[in-house]
Amino acid sequence: DTGVSQNPRHKITKRGQNVTFRCDPISEHNRLYWYRQTLGQGPEFLTYFQNEAQLEKSRLLSDRFSAERPKGSFSTLEIQRTEQGDSAMYLCASSSSGTVREKLFFGSGTQLSVL
Amino acid sequence: KNEVEQSPQNLTAQEGEFITINCSYSVGISALHWLQQHPGGGIVSLFMLSSGKKKHGRLIATINIQEKHSSLHITASHPRDSAVYICAVSFTGTASKLTFGTGTRLQVTL
Predict the structure, then answer these.
(1) A68: left (phi > 0), else alpha (psi -120 to 50), else beta?
(2) Portion of chain A with pLDDT greater than 90, in percent
(3) DSSP codes of every residue in B24-55
(4) Chain B residue whose CA is closest to A47
(5) Residue B80 has pLDDT above 80, yes or no
(6) How many angstroms separate the CA atoms of B53 and B47, rounded?
(7) How far is A42 from chain B (nearest CA, A)?
(8) CB contact, 8 Å: A48 with chain B?
(9) Chain B residues whose beta carbon lies within 8 Å of the beta carbon of residue A95
(10) A21-56 residue pLDDT tens
(11) CA separation for the pair B90, A31 (Å, rounded)
């Protein structure tokens, strides 16, 4: 399968624990995006990378959140000291930059539940 | 403020009906996407358009740039079309970062 892959699919954690999610984009895609989606809402932008450079971060991304894309391939999103409000679906998407109109391909998401 | 609004929020239709979902946005965009999300989270891109009209099978998407409005139509709807349909836009100057609407939950019954 050459689509966008996210792991794990589900994560249940206790408040205060750290969690890390992984996203493997489509191999030739140089842009990678993280979005967060809560129940009944559309996804909200968190951050994006072009190759290994993190070009933009949303104000939603508090200092407990950090994202990396060390070699310009896969990306990780870490949440430290999780809070119940962090419970959401975390979606990754990738695209190949060329113009601003490139099509995005989404992963299936990681569903985080903080107890 | 860059906003995207969709209507209706929920839609129930009988199999075979013609369905229209609407999306309006507040400021200039570089592209508009229609996406489909099934239970479990996976999002599939249906259309990306910046002008005019696109058709794929029973799905048709139109956009009116002057009126800042787009519609997604489904002809001869089928229960397998049941999903959440999301409109998302790239506002001018924001690269590919998408701003999403809250989605329209479609249920097609037999």
Answers:
(1) beta
(2) 72
(3) EESS-EEEEEEEEE-TTS-EEEEEEESSEEEE
(4) B97
(5) yes
(6) 10
(7) 4
(8) yes
(9) 96
(10) 999 999 889 999 999 999 888 899 999 999 999 988
(11) 15
